[in-house]
Amino acid sequence: PTGHKYEGVRFEKGNCGVSIMRSGEAMEQGLRDCCRSIRIGKILIQSDEETQRAKVYYAKFPPDIYRRKVLLMYPILSTGNTVIEAVKVLVEHGVQPSVIILLSLFSTPHGAKSIIQEFPEITILTTEVHPVAPTHFGQKYFGTD
Q1: Fewer Cβ within 10 Å of end Cβ, the chain: N or C?
Q2: 83: number of Cβ within 10 Å
Q3: Looking at residues 105-124, what average pLDDT do you find?
Q4: How far is CA 22 from CA 33, 96, 121, 122, in A?
Q5: Comparing 47 with 76, which gets the higher pLDDT?
Q6: What is the C-alpha to C-alpha distance for residues 31 and 25, in angstroms, rounded to an integer?
Q7: What total of structural domains would you count in the chain?
Q8: pLDDT higher than threshold 70 for residue 101
Q9: Over pLDDT 70: what percentage of the chain?
Q10: pTM value?
């Protein structure tokens, strides 16, 4: 409005969203609203109730994901175990950790540290880092609580 020229950011082609099912899917519509034609992959990871180890059950990505920047969507980062497994799957598909950006709404310090220790090149974007993460995000978003 002041007439000053601004040189800011511009859209960069070659991005790809990957949602960690189920709660990560809640972030897909927002990503599509910003980037209408963005490709989106999915990973289904569930934790064993006894051991708390994350296990990958399903992964589907665009065939050229190894050439793209990946926006990994997971709204609540608690322990980091799920995200670490998701990044391992992406790396197996040729994605370099340096081009992965984790999009998270809430993160615990422990979860963020766990991810950075395993993959120091990854970028984490979050709105809040707090020792206690809100639980049941997916159930509340999808109305299944």
Answers
A1: N
A2: 30
A3: 95
A4: 19, 24, 25, 22
A5: 76
A6: 10
A7: 1
A8: yes
A9: 91
A10: 0.83
